[in-house]
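Continuing from yesterday's entry. The apo prediction looked reasonable, so today I'm repeating it with thiamine diphosphate included to see how the binding region is handled. Same sequence as before; SMILES copied from the compound registry.
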Amino acid sequence: MKKIISGNEAIALSFGDSGGVFASGYPGTPSTETLEEVARLGEVYCEWAPNEKVGLESAIGASIAGGRSLATMKHVGVNVAADALMTLTYTGVNAGLILMVADDPGMHSSQNEQDSRNYAKFAKVPMLDPADSQEAYDFVRVGFEISEQFDTPLMLRTTTRISHAKGCVEQKEKIPVKVGELVKNVPKYVMLPNFGKLKHVEVEARLLKLQEYAETTPLNRVEMGDTELGIITSGVSYQHVKEAYPNASILKLGLVHPLPEKKIREFAGRVKRCMVVEEMDAIFEEQIRAMGIRVDIGKDKISYCGEVNADIIRSAAGEAPATVSLAPVENLPQRPPTFCPGCAHRGLFSILSKLKVFVSGDIGCYTLGALPPLSAMHSVIDMGASISAAHGMAKVNEIAGRTEKPVAVIGDSTFFHSGITGLLSMAYNDGNALVIIMDNRTTGMTGGQENPGSGQVLQGGSSKQVDIAALVKVLGIENVAEINTYNLAETEAAIKKGMETPGPYVLIDKNPCILRYRVKKPVMGVDQDKCTGCRACLKAACVALGLGSAPEGEKPKVQIDPNICNGCGVCTQLCKFDAMSVAKG
Ligand SMILES: Cc1ncc(C[n+]2csc(CCOP(=O)(O)OP(=O)(O)O)c2C)c(N)n1
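Holo prediction written out below.
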């Protein structure tokens, strides 16, 4: 049967068709839909983990117990899961294990642009890099075979375009689920140094065997064409190469680690100019050069930053770019991202902006509080960093004799992911920061997934719902209070109290995500006689608010678009002239 589906959907479908038993992961664009699709298909057990490390570790347990398992995450998630991965490579697997990682070249929705191929090399594990949905589907099946044949975890890497673009997929016959034995094997699964030393030797030997496999597997194929130009490439770059040079000779790598040295040498020997096209790092190029094989065009002409396209490839090869320019159209109005109308984050950041405090931020919808006009977030590093960084800032403030208490802002999902340990450290190490947990009971930024605070699980049905306030107290924080960020005066007073009280202080806002929970409140209107055009309300960065037209020499007055407004009331509280209220009629 043929289907038109995205790369992520293809991976999910193939997981079910390839004898998959257990899937876990943590949301992160562009990987998120993979696990959501496994859940939607409903054939295989799957769950959201609180973070990627837990997701991978659960998949490891499932593999040891004899079930083919899948862990999904975005590229930065591998940093979180890396501790598990770097020893999993030693233990190997029982049933096949695939770590699916989605990279985001061009940073469409990420805090950095790291290239996960580095991790395959670092962890000495095989990695597959599909070039379309069909390959995404096929590579899951062959991935499990490789994983079991070579006793290794396998990384399946996609990029945004492969994860999200749709293509035709021919479904294969289902492999029946076979759950193996849970065998006790101490030298294999207990990585004490004496066992680990032996395992490291095995890992090196495994890599050599995988290298041999790479030479003969059809995953790496040569498409001989015009020998003037030969291009070595993989993944989505292959599609751009085909567009730029449909007749060139191509060595398309499906298994991108380890590399097939003989095949590459032979290919390079058959073409006049040898070009390597890869997004982000020079992973292929550096290895190919280290093999003593010439590369005529590579990263000297193709940037390490962003995505490639046919134009970039043509001009790297010394040709004029195609006539159709892919450059962005100039003079389009700017539409910076902002909070949804009605979002509870808006009230909080209106107050933080007013108080001009230092805000140690985190990753989630609330990160948008860093942008003007709110401009109320001053550092964002990685998930969970808000609390630990605020703790470090507070310690240095104390050493420097500065009295101001830093404020950390973190969402519920990020708190569960990696904020809890930061708070534990703050309690344990006699910290002095104010922590605001925006508990909207969903993982909002990535599309509203369930998490340990939402009371629901990925496959539907209710579950235990963590009580954040109780958890915070158990960690050792004595001062914990609830706030309602829709009420600006109350929020301001609570923040001031938290800033003035010595020691760690936690405020929790429990207003639900209006998008995820479809909250609809009565819309607001502006009394045009009372509005003075002072624009104080516009500081809340709400897209429902705009300026009307005004006669020459007069200030334009504010108007509210009733189709967009969600009645949060923040603008009414910012208005000093009582011009805003619930719209009549
Ligand atoms: C290590 C890592 N994993 C996943 C992501 C993707 N990601 C960005 S924000 C976010 C969740 C934010 O949810 P929450 O903290 O509840 O805040 P909200 O967006 O709901 O306000 C996720 C999963 C990431 N950036 N880094």
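Comparison notes:
- Residues 26-28, 74, 76-77, 80, 111, 363-366, 383, 411-414, 438, 440, 442-446, 513 surround thiamine diphosphate (CB under 6 Å).
- The chain has four domains: 2-216, 221-316, 345-509, 524-582.
Will overlay with the apo model tomorrow.
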